[in-house]
Amino acid sequence: MCAIIEDMNTPIISIDHISKTYHPKRSPDVVALKEVSLSIHAGAFFGLIGPNGAGKSTLIKILTGLCIPDTGTVSVGGNDVINDYQAARQMIGVSLQEHAFDPYLLVEEELYITGGYYGKTKEYLKKKVPELLEQFNLADKKRTFTDKLSGGMKRRLAITKALIHAPKIIILDEPTAGLDVALRHELWDILETLNKKGITILLTTHYLEEVEHLCDEIAIINKGSIIYQGDNKKKGLTENSELEQLFMEMVDQHESDPI
Prior knowledge:
Elements: E1 11-22, E2 30-41, E3 45-49, H1 56-63, E4 71-76, E5 79-80, H2 85-90, E6 92-95, H3 107-117, H4 122-135, H5 151-163, E7 169-173, H6 181-196, E8 200-204, H7 208-214, E9 217-222, E10 225-231, H8 242-256
Parallel strand pairs: 3-8, 3-9, 6-7, 7-8
Antiparallel strand pairs: 1-2, 1-4, 4-5, 9-10
């Protein structure tokens, strides 16, 4: 049975002393996680940062049931990710850095099929798909093949797919990688709006200024261990970046100038 947590001070994600070691056939063992514990409360905007190979991807795989830890337990919304897999997975939407779109599908078809994977009815999707396309400024692209979208549009579609089943949590892996400053700010605004609506967001990124701007709390992982966790006391810092402010002003001015 699905246990739903509504108290904003109650952990919606509980990770308790999980470890994971990979055993490649022709290579030495790889210790991905060592006794990792994290607690993320409902409604948080949580930033997980660390160098490549630190263990972020393995942690996400364990949260989403794609990888089983050697030791420890993980619960999502009070549901154990192994014993209550379906209930836990239903609460999570995932947007990975590498897009997984079918190039032979139109944008709206991609969303309808994804919703079907979660068992959503046609009646639900007929309402939800147009709503999300409008929210993410993709309504005019609904009859466009997914491989014809620009990089920024693909990023927005990936997050739209993650939200199609109305999850309580979304996990974002490098959501703004490769985007220019204007598109990055546009995506920031969308993510902040989602978080204000009560959606818990777990963000992994290499852009430290992104974490400073968006996240309430941060954790640093390195060599499979959490080496720091605490509140982000500099939230919103980059709002006053002079260079970014100048860039945005000039782009906005140029966009409004007559051709």
